[in-house]
Amino acid sequence: MSVSKVRLKATSYLLMLLFITLIIPLHLFPCFISGFLAYEVILSMTPWFERLVGSRRARWVVVMLIASFVVITMALCILSLIRFLTSDIQRGIAVTVEINHIFSDLKNRIPDYLPSFLPESVEELKDQIFALIESNLIIIRNMGHSFLHGLITIFIGFIIGAVISLNKPSKRSTYFTQQLLERLYYLSQVFRSVVFAQIKVSLINTLLTSIMILIVFPLFGVNLPLSKTLIVATFIFGLLPIIGNLISNFMIIISALSISLSVGGVVLFYLILIHKLEYFLNAEIIGSRINAKSWELLLAMLVFEAIFGLEGVVAAPIYYAYLKTELRAQDLI
Question: Among 322, 15, 43, 292, which residue's Cα sits nearest to residue 186?
């Protein structure tokens, strides 16, 4: 390989390093996730439609279907919110009563020194939230701005991913372009493996949790408060590696403790078993695809969390897998 080609290849590595390093500080990580996710979903669904409408129209059909799904989902969410705010207040009252019941039962069933750290009712919880809001107005204002920015960048990323999937690759390319496309190809393959594998792990975890909450407990006459909400939260938070399960499990245990200490203990034991199984699932589904062990992913997440915060926890498996892919491609590991 000539010296010029070595320099061009090194430049492609440098540009990719700058790209993946600056995404999070520039607050473009949601755009990165949505763009790559849209691109990979479109590519994955295209072969199913090629047999029906042909290869030329297949991607357009997939893009239209996904765009329609997003628009319909947003419309339904807005309508549901309006309905809740206008005519479904009674349900909100029922949820408030249920949460009050949970806090009251927790106070009666666990030792006296623990409830002091928990609100005794929804009203007290509201007072604490309002006090927290009042003392952190600037932070909350910045969080609102960040949320709106993230929402906009998600839509922009979705559009970019869809447009890129519709473009045909150029027949003319230089060596430098080939190297950049190779870096992007490796990153795309890693993203596909990690994200789709995490979705599969979250689905399995949600299924096992649903069996406990909706089937096993009702057989013994035990019904956890807000069971459906807990199941939905388990799937959503399960998309976050490691930390997401901790959040959802804490919610489930609090709900179980509102019934009795014994139910809380059974739930804790069952969730520990699920986590032990999940370690094997992570090792088999995610680890096997990127040839990484659980301790490697945990270490990567700790480092990235210290550098980038919560977004670093989500980015760590993708970035670490990409690093190992590049090193493996050069026969360095």
Answer: 322
- Residue 25, pLDDT above cutoff 50: yes
Give the pair of three-digit tokens for residue 211.
């069996």
pTM equals 0.69
Domain boundary assignment for the chain: 23-168, 173-333
Report d(CA 176, CA 182) in Å as an integer: 10
The alpha carbon dihedral of 224, 227, 231, 236 has a sign of negative
Neighbours of 286 (CB within 10 A): 23
298-328: burial string, b at 16+ Cβ within 10 Å, e else? eebbeebbeebeebbbbbbbbbbbbbbbbee
State how far the Cα of 251 lies from the Cα of 66, in Å rounded to an integer.
32
C-alpha 287/C-alpha 294 separation (Å) is 7
Q: What is the pLDDT of residue 190?
A: 87
242: closest CA among 288, 268, 281? 281
